[in-house]
Specification:
Helix content: 40-55%
Largest sheet: 5 strands, mixed
Order of helices and strands: HHHEEHEHEHEHEHE
Number of strands: 7
Strand content: 5-15%
Radius of gyration: 21 Å
CATH architecture of the largest domain: 3-Layer(aba) Sandwich
Structural class: alpha/beta
CATH class of the largest domain: Alpha Beta
Shape: elongated
Number of helices: 8
Number of domains: 2
Distance between the termini: 66 Å
Length: 207
């Protein structure tokens, strides 16, 4: 006969849900669960409401595939931005990091990952075909893209992804550049400071 659990089922379910989040282990999940348990009701309810709104109101921009509540997103509809330049990044957090640097005024394209054969992530799992379609659409509209900046992270997977995109865009009359190596090898855009990002953007190189 199994021993009864010392945790109420509702607490155990919350801990299990928190452990599923990246970077949160069982001990951290337990601390968070008991913090919410002891906190005033409005704290837990505000968190629950925020999570519901997150899932109900957000979507992917149909142009750049960044996270947005309006489609197309505000960055894609901003007439002051240079729509002939596209910066290709791995994740939406990379867009936020580059925007904090306040030196880039073009548009973005979010891949939502990188090539990772060991994890079963191939080209069709990324937004690469959508990038190609976007360039073709711009050409057909008489507003061709003149530069694509490959801003994948300087990791093995990021480099593999950038090389694949470079090959797939070879048929287009577009300048392809890579962020300068002001970014540390193995680092993520998300954690880079504004000065490093600014120098990387300004020193990007043609590939």
């Amino acid at each position: 006969m199994s021993q009864p659990s010392a945790l109420p089922p509702s607490v155990a379910r919350l801990i299990e849900a928190l452990v599923a989040l990246p970077g949160i282990g069982p001990k951290t999940a337990s601390r968070l669960a008991y913090y919410l348990l002891r906190a005033p009701d409005e704290v837990a309810l505000r968190l629950a409401d925020a999570l519901r709104e997150l899932k109900a109101q957000t979507r992917l921009c149909s142009v750049c595939f960044n996270i947005t509540e309006a489609d197309p997103c505000p960055l894609c509809t901003d007439p002051s931005r240079d729509h002939s330049v596209i910066c290709v990044v791995e994740e939406p957090l990379d867009v936020a990091a580059l925007e904090r640097a306040k030196v880039y005024r073009g548009t973005y394209h979010v891949l939502h990952g990188v090539l990772s054969p060991i994890n079963g992530v191939g080209p069709d799992d990324l937004k690469i075909n959508e990038l190609i379609a976007r360039l073709r659409r711009a050409e057909a509209q008489g507003q061709p893209v003149r530069e694509v900046i490959l801003a994948t992270n300087p990791t093995v997977e990021g480099e593999m992804t950038a090389l694949l995109i470079q090959r797939k865009l070879a048929a287009f009359n577009v300048r392809i550049t890579r962020l300068a190596r002001g970014l540390p090898v193995g680092g993520d855009l998300e954690y880079a400071d504004e000065i490093t990002l600014s120098r990387a953007l300004e020193g990007r190189q043609q590939v």
